[in-house]
Amino acid sequence: MTVTVTPVFLFNVEQAGLEKAELWDAITERQLADWEAEWLPELFKYIQQLHRAGVHRQFWPQSRQWNWRRKVEVLQGMLSHPAFSILCGGITQGMMILDLTSKRCRLDGQKGQHMVYVEFVENAPWNRPELSNQPRYRGIGSILIRAAIALSNQEEFKGRIGLHSLPQANSFYANTCGMTDMGIDPEYEGLRYFEMTPEQAEAFIAKGNQP
Amino acid sequence: MAQLEADAEIGAGLYAFDPVLDGAHAAAKDSDEDSRVAFGRFIRLMRRHRGLTLEKLADDTDVEIVELVEIEDDPRYKPRLRTVYQLANYFEVPQAKLQQVAGLTIPRDARLIDEAVRFAARSESVAALTPEEQAALEAFVTVLSGQK
Predict the structure, then answer these.
(1) Strand locations in A104-166, DSSP E?
(2) Is the model's pTM score more than 0.95?
(3) Which of A109, A202, B137, B142 is deepest in the core (most CB within 10 A)?
(4) A with B: how many residue pairs have Cβ under 8 Å apart?
(5) If you average pLDDT over every residue of chain A, what do you get?
(6) Is the separation of the CB atoms in A141 and A174 below 8 Å?
């Protein structure tokens, strides 16, 4: 499996400066090991804190049974499901899986057109504000969404992308990314569906290119 | 770009949901089960009320027959959201309330869950729909529909 590594920068919050990072066009065993050995224990530590503080389960982070490793292993190497990851400080900081084939646009004006669907995107727990008082790195979501847009352009989908956002991330996709909020999707566990037009993709890229 | 993003959450997709400790799942199962007994009983009675076989209901609602069997017979089984949506539409009851009864959403309406449990207690699984079952079913549909 050939992996292309692109140099990028993340904002190191503690040092208040940019730090060199790597954008990989893959999720490999290395990232899966980070997820198991670094991400999950951190998540459980947080849930344990809530539990010990007597916080009722309904206020814990949203939960779902999953077997993420198996899912990634199945998708690994499939041309229809490219994946990306960001490494910084020797550890995986964010991951994304895309779907190039099975979803079509829903938004009027581009309904039925091909797009890149973001099947999964996530920050490491220590970069998530609801889990950590001071997130370690910033910029992971923006770099990954830019990668999704770039792939959409490369596939001649003109930058069109779509995704189902977790409730706490709605504002990022609506305001920072400028995607169109198409409301709650009852077929998708009540998550809101967002879609990006070619114009919105261009505006988002331009916003990121500003000094 | 990093500053534009600030400390925003970015999670998207079902796989971005956090996992929880196994113990948490077990605790949730207990509290949801009472309500799910009612859900399974409700689906069974509505089906029999309309004289439908499981096969016919599966065909009409585009739900796997195996899932319908689990819903009717196994209160530990957590139905899929799409299935509850299809069944709510088919039986013409509000989907949000049926989701609560199915234990898929956090109940905001304690009375609904009380009514669901009472309904489960009053209805019995026998071959024909008795007048009592009929009355229990109608009363519960009224509560689900929010008519009183």
Answers:
(1) 116-123, 137-138, 161-165
(2) no
(3) B137
(4) 141
(5) 88
(6) no
